[in-house]
Design goal:
The protein has 2 domains: 37 residues, no CATH class; 82 residues. 47% of the residues lie in helices and 4% in strands. The chain contains 7 helices and 2 strands, in the order αααααββαα. The chain has a two-stranded antiparallel ribbon with strand order 1-2.
Length: 149
């Protein structure tokens, strides 16, 4: 990567690299490469964060193929809080909720959140099923477990 990006008189090219900033510690080999790249002109770093609530709602709306009702908007808020707006986690939790029957498609073709769901019930369903819960951590973080013998 450094060789390609730092060659003198480079031809026109676009190099896209991705990494989790939490994974590149100061002693990680990529740390030095990133420091070298930051000093170069023409190198741009773009930091991505999670989607906000309106963006999660837009993602749900695009997937549903219709405008969200008030339950759908509320679901978007819960998903944003529970997943940190990570689009992958949002999609996985929605997929799980569809599989569990918490989100169903009616005869009219519209998706709806089944009645009776409450914030606490949603959180319980997510805690048993969401990728972040299965990993035992918040989105974007890792957690170390230790055992003593």
């Amino acid at each position: 990567l450094a060789h390609l990006a730092l060659r003198s008189a480079p031809p026109r090219r676009l190099i896209v690299g991705t990494f989790r900033d939490s994974a590149v510690t100061p002693d990680h080999p990529m740390s030095r490469v990133l420091a070298d790249l930051r000093r170069e002109s023409g190198v741009q770093r773009i930091t991505l964060g999670g989607l906000d609530e309106s963006e999660v709602a837009a993602l749900l709306q695009a997937g549903a193929g219709h405008n969200l009702d008030s339950d759908g908007v509320a679901l978007a808020g819960e998903l944003t809080r529970e997943t940190g707006g990570n689009p992958f986690f949002v999609s996985e939790v929605v997929r799980h909720l569809v599989e569990r029957g918490a989100i169903v498609q009616g005869d009219d073709g519209r998706w709806r959140v089944e009645g009776g769901w409450a914030s606490s019930g949603f959180r319980r369903a997510c805690s048993r099923s969401s990728p972040s819960a299965r990993a035992g951590s918040e989105p974007g973080q890792s957690r170390r477990s230790e055992s003593r013998r």
